[in-house]
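Reminder: ligand-aware prediction takes two inputs, not one.
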Amino acid sequence: MAEQPKAKYRADYKAPEYTITDIALDFDLQDTATRVVAVSKVKRLAEQDAALQLDGDALTLIRVEVNGESWSDYEETATGLSLTKLPAEFELTIETEINPEANTLLEGLYKSGGGFCTQCEAEGFRRITYYLDRPDVLARFTTKVTADKASYPYLLSNGNRIAEGELENGRHWVQWQDPFPKPSYLFALVAGDFDVLRDKFTTCTGRDVELEIFVDKGNLDRADYAMTSLKNSMKWDEERFGLEYDLDIYMIVAVDFFNMGAMENKGLNIFNSKFVLANSKTATDTDYQGIEAVIGHEYFHNWTGNRVTCRDWFQLSLKEGLTVFRDQEFSSDLGSRAVNRINNVRVVRGPQFAEDRGPMSHPIRPDKVIEMNNFYTLTVYEKGSEVIRMMHTLLGEQNFQAGMKLYFERHDGTAATCDDFVQAMEDASGIDLTRFRRWYSQAGTPVVSVTTDYDAEQKRYHVTVKQRTAPTAEQEEKQALHIPLDIELYDEQGNVIELQRNGEAVHHVLDVTEEEQVFVFDNVASKPVISLLREFSAPVVLEYDYSDEELVFLMVHARNEFARWDAGQMLLAKYIRDNVTNVQQGKAVEFPASVVDAFRGALLAEDLDPAFIAEMLTLPSENEIAGWYKQVDVDAINKVVGDIKAILAAEMEDELTAIYHSLAQPSYTIEHEAMAKRALRNRCLSYLACTEQGNALVEAQYQASDNMTDTMAAMAAANSSELACREAQMKDFSDKWTHDGLVMDKWFALQGANPAENALAVVRETMNHPAFDLKNPNRTRNLVANFCGNNPVRFHAKDGSGYAFLTEILTALNSSNPQVASRLIEPFLKYRQYDEARQTLMRAELEKLAALENLAKDLFEKVQKALGQ
Ligand code: B3K
Ligand code: ZN
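Here is what comes back for the chain with (3S)-3,7-diaminoheptanoic acid:
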């Protein structure tokens, strides 16, 4: 490797020496040679006559002027432009040329399909012009875009359209002005030919906002749900958070080539088309839920992210953790709170905990970063949201909202830190968050071990709580955290026992702040059953020695649905662990009738939401199970999960069949109730696929289906149970949808998750499918990332073929799109959790990658950490 990329440290933050208050951008769009003229008002903030260091990447410099005069006191450096001998205040003109067509990184200005679009967060603006590309420099942007009118009838940027005109050569231009000062990462530009869905939202103060969703021509019939979700988001933010939209127009553009889910650019969100386009024929219920969540998320950023932004990128969780919390609350208020919570918790307990254990482990506010794009992580987002949720639990809704209000009063229009946020929460509530702040600086997952003791004579119940956090990569020492531990006690009949001590009521959320604490409760008439970590009140691993009977009791009697589900998961976990040992010892998988009965009880419970029952009957993923082990046995885990599923299916076949048929619906709607019924019906189908009637049922559902949810449920069942009908379905689907990459992604995902022995060969062959394109991140994620990340038995094939495949892909993507490569490499980072032979093979692949010429920063950072260098 030529030059080793350098790390940046949070502790090194320095306020900018110059700032830019206004910038006028002028784009002359051409596929391979776009000209950008940037005229900025620059002000020196530093006392001394400092050099102005502008960031720049992959730019061709055309000219530099200061106050309208050509300027020669500058130097092009490896990372930008350094200007000297500058006055204290001046107008800086910089003209650059860029090549959008060659921009396969999808960062900066690039071409997606026939159009132009941008992605600037975190550091993409520097690929457009030389600039102070850091979030604490906030400027008012005016943007003029000129392009060929026939090819690009729509020219969009942030803010309000202020002027437009026609040119003689078939070109036209539009000028936009964003009245809100913003950092460069929120800049956006789009040019293209679209169909537009228009609507209107009247805000709580009676202002009309124009809503526009831009989609590729022919896709207008797939934009309605996104529009509904946008209006719901705007209304919800007013009602729950008292936050009103602030511009007269809100635009969303759907593009096919996009590295992430979406981007919250001020007034002009750019979305991965996956999170906009949906109708019943092309999208599943899960897709609809994803659209609602992501539309909400980007909209909510307008206040948490845009109005108050981040001082530096180490503070990313300030906007992301908070905005994830907000979008989770939005989905929970509109749909099922329990089901939303369950799915969010699955992500934290599965992949986030895995991240915490691996070489990339970092606090939600990282201390050291080589490539910022590597830190848009589950830790910053999902654990970050859990940290906000814990504050919400500790403060309560009212205090929390008072804290939000104070936060906006103090920081609106500025770039803030995570500390600023906690301070506002503390000041508004009067609740001491000193120890709580450690969640921001400490990496790793705490283990909370609980033991209980009932004193029948004194009628007292003792709950002893210990916490410990194992050392993580780069952080040896760990401190005790402030952990809100939500509990409830039940008597034998399932009645709630009021918590009290010395005659006073005790709140059900215990403040665990020490390494070891004992909580004592009086007047407990008989030995209770305890429900612990209700609602997953903290992102921790809970250890408590529940008996089967207690778990079955909680599955029925716990007052809240989440706790019931969690009890079911703990019961499953016990038997999965025992059976992994059985399988390793050559014994058969055993699953007692009493445990089956507990799940049968859940299946038949008439008072429960079918969507919730579907979750009760969902086994933990093989990846989540892998996380329970120091050394993972992929084959044993796969066998146990398969066998338990088959046992449940066989034992409950009659009930599953009856419920499956009873839940059929005459037509498709996207109301919660209809979705819930489909969720349970399709969960039943996934079990029934393991029985003798499986092939016939799955085939019949595929044939009869008039919507993508049921179609995909049938295909997924056929795929995972390797049914005879699989081949014909796969062919039929591909014939029907080859023209539509977004729909074909579902088919690619099935090929990636294919349990068949020849899965890798099929995946390789699938890469030649006309709808596949390694340069499109969605295609690559569904086929390749799904194979490597979610098909453990095939990826970890003993001959190392899966590993070699991943290295081939990573090598190709290292030059075309290192951001996507860096996400794909994740399975390799866990190599230390596998047996010796597999470790050796994976390590060798990592070493091959380390030796690559021009290894991108993104991969460099992860490879280096994984190898422990
Ligand atoms: N803020 C963007 C993420 C940008 C990713 C940069 N690599 C999407 C979001 O979290 O809303
Ligand atoms: Zn976000």
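The CA atoms of residues 582 and 588 lie 6 Å apart. The two ends are 14 Å apart (CA to CA). We will return to this case in the review session.
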